[in-house]
Amino acid sequence: MIPPHVRYLTFPDLGSACAALAAERKYVALGGGTVVVPELVRRERHADAMVELRGLVPDGVTVGEGEVEFGALATYTTVARDPRLQEAAPLLRQLAAGITGGAQLRNQATLVGSACRAIPSSDVPAALVGLDATMRVQGPSSSRDIAATDFFLGAFRTALAPGEIVRSVVVPSHPGGYGYLKFKFSESSWPIVTAAAFVRDGASPGGPRWATIGVGGLAPVPARVDLDLDGSLPTAADLNDLLAEQTSAYWSDELADGNYRRSIAGAIARRALAQAATRHQDSATDRGGE
Amino acid sequence: MTHVDPAPHRTVSCTVNGKDVQVRCRDGALLVEMIRDTLDLTGTHIGCLNGDCGVCTVRVDGQVTKSCLYLAARAEGAEVTTIEGVAEEGTLHEVQQALWNGEGFQCGFCVPGQVFCAMDLLESNTTPSDGQIRHAISGNLCRCTGYQKIVEAIHDASTRLDPTEKTATH
């Protein structure tokens, strides 16, 4: 049970909800609720009130010119079942359909909530980093954008200031190939290592093809590799070296220690990259060859 | 002397198994607590209280939901269906009947979640594969059956519910 003193508060608009969250250190924002509610039940989080975000932030997905915007309360089910996203955001659609916890969890939990909790082995943070997502943030009196690469500061820690909430996340919808892979020990397990790879034709950084890979579960914050792809793909060992260059601390928890995660991350990243490269090749063929 | 506020309460108005109810509960009451403790519908179980096991599954506005992750306050205006509401009193839904016939449960603790998730699957897919069934029930832990008999029962239920088979089975 949630401690009896905890209140449930609704506000007429987002600004006043953010103002309340800024003023009261022990108020907590309630999005999907699948993280906050059990944390309160387990007494891992101490709060005086839950601030309802329903009705104050968008719960839909907007497919725009070259980008897709996911409202803070868009559930995994909303994302997984949106046929437009097969073209516009296929990696996140696949990710959403495969979230652990069953249909019940996917009906309630959200991409944005997962990002805000910043659990190192969650699916979402590394995918957003790999996809160059932008967090649209609202505070009591102003709004700002934060790049996903700057958003995750540590395990369970983000760049949000007190009173700020993420209103939506925007992901560019480049044409290209994607690959998503997660390694976990059983169907109901948290992921151990995840890899979200994206291959695109690229002027930047300069090669004929360019890849980004966001790797989750390896370190307290998502790791990211950017690389030119000319000729053959890098091996798992190459990717392990690239990941090691930018990882100073590895994530350990009761499911797997840092050494284990470190030893498999390159292989998971390699498989996601291979999927992405194959899809990129197929889409190039569909576009009339190159 | 410290002043202690009385626990904040509210009245939640919603529909449970087709009946309008008004329930007085704590602000932080979980939907599962409202269903079991106030409405005395104890077919909805409490297991992990952590969103893992699925025994507290109900439907909220048609969506399968773990009621330990859901605040009662959020059910204001909603239509809630518990396991007691999936079939007429004294009868079984086809999924329940298939689980009964196929020994798809032993202790029965996980049954509400298995039933709701199977119903949810079969509403959109009347001929699911083993893999689709296993994915659909993946939010429900069963420590008795090893799942195989549950999967078989859901196949059986799909046959019972398939309109093309209906004349043969009813």
Automatic annotation (TrEMBL), chain A:
It holds the Pfam family FAD_binding_5. SMART domains: CO_deh_flav_C. Residues 1-176 form the FAD-binding PCMH-type domain. PROSITE patterns: FAD_PCMH (PS51387). Gene3D superfamilies: 3.30.465.10, CO dehydrogenase flavoprotein, C-terminal domain. Keywords: FAD, Flavoprotein, Oxidoreductase. This is FAD binding domain-containing protein. It comes from Pseudonocardia ailaonensis. The lineage of its organism: Bacteria, Bacillati, Actinomycetota, Actinomycetes, Pseudonocardiales.
